[in-house]
Amino acid sequence: MLAQYGYVGILLICAIGFTVIIPLIPKILMVMGLIPTKKNPTKEGQYECGMQTIGKTWVQYNFRYYFFAVLFVLFDMLTIFLYPWAVNVTGLGVGGLIAVGIFLAILIIGYLYAWRKGALQWK
Amino acid sequence: MTLLDEFQLFLKTLGWPDWAYYSVPALTGIVIIVAAVLTIVIVFIWWERRLLGRFQIRLGPNRCGPEGIFQPIATAVKILLKEDIVPAKADKVVHFIAPIAVFVPVLMVFAVIPFDKAAILVDLNVGAIYIIAISSLSMLAIFMAAWASCNKYSLIAGLRAIAQMVSYELPVVMSLVGVAMMASSLSMVKIVEAQTLPFILLQPLGCLIFFLGSLAEMNRCPFDLLEADSEIVAGYHTEYSGMKFALFYLGEYGVAFVYAAVITTLFLSGWQGPFLPPVLWFLIKVFLVFTLILWMRATLPRLRVDQLMTFAWKFMLPMSLINLIVVAIEILLVPASLQWVMIVINFGLAAVLILLFSRMFTFGGGRVEV
């Protein structure tokens, strides 16, 4: 079991190694003079349709999906509990299905309430 | 017994030390996987440009090599020789890390994808959950890129990315529960072996939801709001150039390959098929799924943000919940010999539900208010 995750670990190390090399190739070519490096302030500014950026970019932002995020956490917790049941549906039988049904029903009531309240609307 | 295990046993009989016989087969497998992913991604890029040209009644790239097959390589060389521009105000460290963090999860997912019964790196017993967990990491990397670029368009794209991920993760995960129930396992090999009939026949609704949700997760048309060129330039990779941009590009097609492979494994019975060798069947199915994705891109216009969220929360989530409950009841009540009953019921149910739910939406003309 642990040996299997060892392979995943080796793959992680190899993947990071391989991927870090890709953006480093241009640095080597730059030293060899194959890639141009001509800096100027206009080139290093942010792109905004040719205009100068007004104000800062990293500002406080109304991200609008606070309720979506809360509901996401809720349903994600639900799925965590669903998976152990899902792999053994026939073993747990009707009793398991009823238990999960009650669990789902509580969440669906909350979901319908959120829908009614307009929390699922992107305003 | 996978090919990896056989290789290990072979090395053991040669009397190699412990660390060597453990790591050498793994490294060989990883090299093969990375090479295969890159090759297929390059073929995908060519296939997309060529086919999209045909969809738009033009030729597409046809100069480099026969049928333009070397065009992606020419593009790669061109990108390699571009100047690497980093905005003066950008967060330099995160700006460098972001493209790497996009591409690493793509490679990581292929650890558990079975190209064949034996051709798999590790057959984890939680394979499906592993895929869900790893593949959503790319979204975080996209947000890193968007934030570090210090560009307002990018920031909007990043916020959209998170909103999209939060919404579409749920239907995808829920429809996966249906697959886990039918296969009574989360191991990818066992899921494929459980499919004497492909699961697309047994739960068409789950397959549809998974397909649409994965389209959103890989930022493809009609859900490509992150790179909506007509609204926010190039979205999160506006400020990227050179090889860093190439990594995003590779990552995008890599994710497309990942999801095409996952759909093939979960719903289209993976490597199984008559006459041809299993690996070939797997690749044929992956290409069919990718062609379908391309077809969607060529056909459908882009959604608006509010339509996107409405579609996820008021269409796909309720449908995936219904699908989940119906599949559970069917598994308990319908005996295995009467699977055709299940097919009929599920196709009928899918049609009825899609019709009912689509009555709630009025697309075209005006805002969608549900």
Largest interface: A-B, 68 and 78 residues
Number of domains of chain A: 2
Oligomer: heterodimer
Overall body shape of chain B:
globular
Average per-residue pLDDT of chain B, rounded, comes to 84
Low-confidence stretches of chain B: none
Number of helical stretches of at least 4 residues of chain B: 15
Number of helices of chain A: 4
Coarse shape of chain A = flat
Q: What structural class results from the helix and strand content of chain B?
A: mainly alpha
- The helix-strand sequence of chain B is HHHHHHHHHHHHHHH
Helix percentage of chain B: 55-70%
Question: Proportion of β residues of chain B?
Answer: under 5%
Helix share bin of chain A: 55-70%
> Could you give the distance between the termini of chain A?
48 Å
Q: Which percent range describes the beta-strand content of chain A? A: under 5%
Largest sheet of chain A, in brief, is: none
Largest sheet of chain B: none
Distance, first to last CA of chain B: 53 Å
